Amino acid sequence: MRTLTVNLGARSYPIYLGRELLAQAGEFIQRAGCGEKVGIVTHPKLAELYLPILEESLKRTGFRVVSVIIPEGEEHKNFASLSLIYDRLIEERFDRGSCVVALGGGVVGDLAGFAAATFLRGVPYVQVPTTLLAQVDSSVGGKTGVNHRAGKNLIGAFYQPRLVIIDVEALRTLPPREFVAGLAEVIKYGVIADPKLFALLEQKLDRLLGLDRELLVDVIATSCAIKAQVVERDEQEEDYRSVLNFGHTVGHALEALTGYGKFLHGEAVAVGMVQAAAISSRQGVCDETSQRRISELVQNAGLPTEIPSGIEPRELIQAMEVDKKSLGGKIKFVLCRGIGATQFVWFSAEEIVAQLAGE
Ligand SMILES: NC(=O)c1ccc[n+]([C@@H]2O[C@H](COP(=O)([O-])OP(=O)(O)OC[C@H]3O[C@@H](n4cnc5c(N)ncnc54)[C@H](O)[C@@H]3O)[C@@H](O)[C@H]2O)c1
Ligand SMILES: [Zn+2]
Question: Both 150 and 66 in a single domain?
Fold first, then answer.
């Protein structure tokens, strides 16, 4: 097992990473100082696959366990699911020491985290991410929230977990398309911060797609370490944390325009990264070789690279402007300086779309 630490002073917490850690979750959660009651938030399918082993481990350690099963899908990251969680915690008389555990992908993690942030003005919570995206990204860093009908993640809080438990074995049941979508965020870490990680992905892509356990642990550990470093430097995204948005300006716009149906998040980000690399090259910030390597790795991973032809530039501009990161009409856009470094520029949505068109 590997242990990483997210260093945030009093809010610091460990990430445990390895194989078959679910069966040890009880001891880990006890060590994190959670009270007697634990509420596990998960989805029906994950409840079938992983709840018995997690519950067993918690009960063996002396916890009283209840579970809240939320329907799966981005459309359920909403107030109705949040209410289900609050209702259950109130029914079971959870107190300020009781603990919430998120067993699932980013949807469960964001929901359970926000419930924990707000219930009784904050109870401890633990992330047990089961998608690659959640293991390398959403479970670390303390962004929690729910969607509003006016937009994604409009309601939320920065609230750090007490502990993250990453069991790579869980990825064996993840649909391959979800796994590949998560890889997009791993590729992103390589581009923004780590040429060695990027080269490793290039060289060992097949083994990774074959879920080679040792390689998975390596790649996830490196990704979490990068995310942790960024969060340690700028926890509340006042400035630097937005490097994590590389590929996300165009990616978010694509997701919004296609109604969160056509693209998985990572797939939209993959297109966004290839396009951001092309813009970086046009701006003279990224060399051609790096641009080509980014585009090839994305493609070889089985991810999309192009904006669908049916999408009009005008629609893209509108979708980018409702993005909450826009400030005074300009959007903070992340360029890559080759592989392993970034640079911020402020663009209007019109400028970005003109750049995409190569103008
Ligand atoms: N908080 C953050 O910092 C942050 C960062 C990135 C994304 N997000 C959020 O994360 C969400 C997307 O997360 P996601 O990509 O993990 O999607 P998800 O949580 O919807 O999970 C994808 C699907 O995989 C299933 N699944 C999960 N683990 C499985 C497993 N081990 N075996 C079989 N099936 C499994 C789920 O039931 C679901 O159907 C979005 O809502 C996004 O806004 C948050
Ligand atoms: Zn993302």
Answer: yes
Mutate to test the pocket of ligand 1, among 15, 77, 133 (most ligand atoms within 8 A of CB): 133
d(CA 119, CA 102): 15
Q: Residue 130: name the closest of 143, 139, 141 by CA.
A: 139
Active site residues: 121, 143, 185, 227, 237, 241, 245, 248, 252, 265
Torsion of CA 316, 321, 327, 328, to 10 degrees: 100
Pairing of strands 125-129, 99-104: parallel
Locate all alpha helices (DSSP H) within the chain, ordered by sequence: 25-31, 44-60, 79-91, 106-118, 132-133, 176-193, 195-209, 213-233, 248-257, 265-282, 288-300, 313-321, 349-356
Give the separation between CA 156 and CA 143, rounded to whole angstroms. Answer: 7
pLDDT tens, residue by residue, 192-218: 999 999 999 999 999 999 999 999 999
Ligand 1 pocket check for 169: Cβ under 6 Å = no
CA distance 322 to 340: 29
Using one digit for the tens of pLDDT, what is the confidence trace for 13-43?
999 999 999 999 999 999 998 999 999 999 9
Diameter of the chain measured on Cα atoms: 64
Tokens (6 digits) for 8? 């945030």
Ligand 1 centroid distance, CA of 312 (Å): 29
130 Cβ inside 6 Å of ligand 1: yes
Structure tokens at 350: 């019109």
174: Cβ contacts below 8 Å, ≥ 6 apart: 130, 131, 132
Ligand nearest to the CA of 137: 1
CATH number, residue 188: 1.20.1090.10
Residue 123 and residue 195 share a domain: no
Query: How many domains does the structure of the chain reveal?
Result: 2
